[in-house]
Amino acid sequence: MEALAPEVARQLNCSLSSDEAVVTSATEELDRLSRLADFPLALLLIARGGNNQGEKIAAATYLKNFTKSHYESDSSFLKGHHPYRNQLAQALLEVEPIVLKVLVEAFRMVVAIDFVKANLWPELVPELRSAIQRSNIFSEGARQWKTISALTILQTILRPFQYFLNPKVAKEPVPQQLDLIAQEILVPLLAAFSVLVDKALTVQRKIDTEIQRTVHVICKCIYFAVRSHMPSALVPLLCPFCLDLIRLLDTLKLDAPSPQDSILLKAGKRSLLIFCASVTRHRKHLDRLMPNLVSCALRIVKQSPYVPSLDSLSERVISLAFDFISHTLETGPGWRLVSPHFLFLLEYAIFPALVMNPKDIIEWETDADEYIRKNLPSELEEFSGWKGDLFTTRKSAINLLGIISMSKGPPTVTSASSSSKRKKGEKNKLKNRSVFAGDALVMPFLSKFPIPSDAVMLSEASNNYYGVLMAYGSLQDFLRKKDFEYTATLVRTRVLPLYTSSSSLPYMVATANWIIGELAGCLPEEMRGDIYSALLQSLTMPDAGPYSCYPVRVSAGGAIAALLENDYQPSEWLPLLQVLVSRMDCEDENESAVLFQLLTTAVEAGSESLAVHIPPVVTNLAGIILKHIPPIPEPWPQVVEKGFGALATMAKIWEGFLPDEKEENDSSLDWRSGWAVIAKMFTDLLQKAWITSAVPMEEQAFVTLPPPSGIDDASVLLGSILRYTIRFDAALDSRISDILLVWTDLIADWHAWEEMEDLSIFDSILDVVNLQRKYELKSFFVRQVPPPPAPPVALRSIIEGMGAFVVGGLSTYQSATWRACSSAHMLLNVPRFSFETEGIKQSLAIAFSKAAFCRFKAIESKTVALWKPLVLVISTCYLYYPDIVERILEKEEKNGFTVWARALGYTYNNLSVSGFSCVSEVKLAVMALTKVIERMVASSFQQMDETLNGCFLSLIKAVIHMKEVQDKEEDDDDGAEDLDDDDDDDEADDEIEEDEDSEDEHEETEEEFLERYAKVASELEGMVTEEGDLEDQVQELELGALCDVDPLKVVFSLMESYHPALQTITLPRQLGNLKQNVFTRNSRATCHHLGISATQEWQPFKWAGIFTRL
C-alpha cells in the first residue's frame, strides 16, 4: 500500500492537469492501477495525508466513485473489504472537513451494504461509541478526535433507518441495528444534550460554532432514528429531549436573524421536523407534552407577518411550524388543543402569510416563473407545480387553512329527546350536519374584506384581497362538500367582478385565474361559459405599462385546461385555437411552451369536435416550430418539444376521426385531403429537424446526428406520414428514406427507456415494415457507403437500425419485452429478403436470439409468464437458422439449447400461466417443437431423453390447442357485437353504482394502507416488472412466410419419418380425455398411411393412441 501510494498520487495530480493528453494518460494509468488489491487503501492513505488539499480531494473523489462501482460487485474487492471499511471509518475521524464531505459518500455505500443490509459489522457501533467518548467536546483535554467528525459518522449510519426497510411487513419492528445504536450511543448523547443546548445558547454571543454544529447534527441523528421507527430506549428520553428543542426554538430571532444564527436556525428547522414526525408516528409518547409543542408552534407562526423581510431559512422554520399544526389537527387530542386558537391563527398567522407583500411584486417582475411556481401552481406545465423544494410559508398556511375549513364542530341539533327517537339513517344525517369551521369561521372572516374599488390600485385593501383570493384557493375540499350553487355564488360575487373592473391589478386577475382552476370541479355547468369567456380574455391580456402580464396568461391557460379536463366543452373551439396559434409565435419561449401544452389539452378534450380545424392549425404550428429548431445539432428548446407533443396529439385525433369507409362522400374526401396536408407538413418538419440540422463537422469526415429530443412524439409524426402513404397508395416522398435513416440511427443508440415514450417507436417500426411491403425503400436492407472524404465504412441500414433498437429493448428494459419480441418477429418474417440480403436477416436472428436468451436467463427463476415472448423469439430464429442458433445458445450457457427447449415445452405445458392465446403463437410453437424434436431424435445425446418427452407432450397439446383457439376466435367474431352491447350496459350500470356509492366512500386508514402495501410488496417479491398493457400481449404475431406452412403436415411428417423412435415415448393417461374432433380428414389419411387403425382401442401410454378415436 505504501509503495503504491506515491504512484497513485502522481497520477491523480496529472489528472488535474490542463493538458488533455496528460489527463487521458493519467486516467488510463489509474484504471490500470485500480485492478491492484491495495488500490483503495492507497487512495485512503493519500486522502488522509496527501501533499496538498487538491490531491486529498482528488483521492477522496476517486475512492468514492471506485467504491460505488466495485464494492458490491467486485469479488477481488470483497476479499479485502474488512480492512478497507475499518480504515475508511478511521479516516473519517482524521481528515479535514472538506475531505470528510467527500469520503462520507463512500462510507455511506459501505454502511448500506455491510451494516444495514447484511448486518455484518458488529464492531462498528462499539468503536464509534468509543470515538465519540474520546472526542474533543466530550473528553476535554484529550487529543483524540473532533466530535463533529464522529457525529457525522453516526449520522451516516442512521440515515438509512429513517425509512422502513421491509415493505412486506405492515408493522415493521425496529431494526436490531437501530436498537443497538439507540442503547449504546443515542441514550448517552441525549443525556448530555441539555448541557450542550445550554452552552449553545449561553455562548451564542461568542459564536461557538462547534457546539452549535454539534447540537444540529445530534438533532439530525435523532430525526433519522425516529422518523419511521421508535427505539424503545429513546421513549423515556423523548419528552425531555423535546423540551430542550422547545427551549432552542424559543430563543430563535426569526424577525431579525444575524448571519451567525444560521446553524441554530438549521437546528430549529430539524427540531420542527422531529415534532412533525413524532406527532404523526409516535403521538402516544408525546401526549403530555402536546400543549407545550402547540404553544411553541403558535409562537413561531405568529411571526408570519415578518416573512417578506426574512431569509429562506427563517421562512422555512415558520413554514414547518404551520405544517406541525396541520399534522396536529389530524389527531383527536391535537384538534382539542388547536381548535380554541382557530381565530387567532386565521387573523394573526395564516392571513398575514397570504396577503400580498413587496417580495411578491419584486418576484413577479424579476422572476415570473418562480412566482408562478410558488403561488399559481397548475398541471399545465412542468414547472407550474409545487415542487418538494418550494417550502414557502404561504404554501403551508394555505394547507393549514384548508384543514381548518374541513374541521367539524359539535352538531347543531341540541334536543336530546328528539334525537334519541330518530331512526338510524336520520342519526347519520344528523352526524353529517355538524358545522364545518369553514362555515362558522373561515367564510365569515374572509367576507370582511371587500373587493377593492376601481379607484384603488396598490393599497392595503388590494393586498388584503389578494390574501382573500389565496384563501379561496385553499377551500376546494370544503367547497366540494357544498352544493354547486354555493360555489357559484362565491365565484360570481367575489371573483368574476375582478375581470370586469377597469383597474384590477394583474396580480389579482392572475390569482383569480388560479382560483377558478382550483375550483373547476365545483362549478355548475350554467356558469362555465361566462367563466371560460373571462379566462379567454385573460389569455390575451397584453402587458400593461409597468406590469408584466405573463403570469396572468399562464394562469389563465392553467384554468382553461382545468375546465376542459373537468368535461367542459366550449360551444365554439375556433376562438381558442385562434388565440393559441396567434400567441404561440412570441419571443418568450416559456410562454409558447405553455400555450403548446394548453393546445394539447384542448385537442385531447375536444377530440372530434375540433378535428375539422386540425389541418390549418398544423400548418401554422409547423411554421412556428420551424423557427425555433436549432440550426446546429443541439438539444431542442422546450417550445420545440412541446410543439412536437401538440402535433403528435393532433395526428392521433385526426386519424381517429375516420369517416365511414363504405361511403365515398365529401367528408371522406376532406378527411383524406386534410391528412395529405398533415403528412406534407410533418415531412417538412422532420426534414428540417433531422436532416437539415445534421450538418457535417469540419473536423470530422461524417455527419453528426441531431439530438434525440422528442423522439417519441417525432415517431408519432413519422408514423402518421407512413400510414397515410400506405392507406391511400400515395406517391412515396423521396425524402422518406433519408428521414428513416436518421430516425433509425437515433433509435439504434437509444438508452432512455421509458414505457410510454417507447410505445410510439415500436408502432413506427410496424409502419416502416408495412411500407416496405408496398414500396422498395432505398437503404432499407443495405445503406450506400458515403462518398469521400468520409471513411469507406458501411453504415447501418434502416432495418439494422430498427433491429438494434429491438435488441436494446430485449436486453435493457424488461417492460418493453412484449413489444420488442413482437417487433423481432416482424423484422424477421415480413420483409422480403433476397439472396444478397440474407446475411442481414441472419445477423438479426443472431442478435435477437442472443438478447432473448440472455434476458430469459435473467428472469428464469422469477416468472413463467414472461418466458413466452422470449422463447418464441428464439423459436422464430431457430426455424430459420437452427444450427447457428443452437451454437449461440450453447455458447451463452452449457447445454443452452436443452435449457431453451425445456423452457419452450414447459411454457406450453403451463398454459394457465403463460397464456398462449393467439393462433400465430400456437402455430409457431408447433413448428418450433417439431423442429426441436426432430433435432433431438436425430441426436445421439442421451441427456435429451427427458427433454424430448416433455417437448413431445407439449407438441401434442399444442396441436389440440391450436384447433381450440381457432374455434374460439370464430366464436368470438360471431359474438363480438353482442359483447359490445353488453359492455355498454355494464359501463352504464357501473356509473350508476359509482354515483350511488360516492357518498359512502371509505377513507383508507394508515393501518389499512400499510397492510395493503405490505400485501402488494409480498406479491411482487421475486417478480419482474411486466408491461401493463394487456393488448400488447394478445396481438397476433407476424409470421410472414411461416403462415403458409401447415403445422399439421409438419407434425405428421415428423411422425412418419421418426415413427419407431417416437413409439417409445410414454405419454400421461389424461391425454385420453382430449377432444376427438381435433384432426381433420387429412390427418386421418395420414394415420391410415402410418398404419394406425381408426377402430383400434385407446392406448394411453403410446403416442399412436392419440389417433385411435378419430
Automatic annotation (TrEMBL):
UniProt GO BP: protein export from nucleus; protein import into nucleus
Region (Disordered): 410-429, 966-1007
Gene3D superfamilies: Leucine-rich Repeat Variant (1.25.10.10)
InterPro entries to which the protein is assigned, alphabetical: ARM-like, ARM-type_fold, Importin-beta_N
Record's keyword annotation contains Nucleus: yes
Organism whose genome encodes this protein: Aristolochia fimbriata (White veined hardy Dutchman's pipe vine)
Domain of life: Eukaryota
Keywords recorded for this protein, A-Z: Nucleus, Transport
Record SUPFAM superfamilies: ARM repeat (SSF48371)
A single cellular component GO annotation: nuclear envelope
Acidic residues bias locations: 967-1007
Protein name from the UniProt record: Importin N-terminal domain-containing protein
Domain Importin N-terminal: 26-72
Composition-biased stretches (Basic residues): 420-429
Localisation per UniProt entry: Nucleus
GO function terms (MF aspect): nuclear export signal receptor activity; small GTPase binding
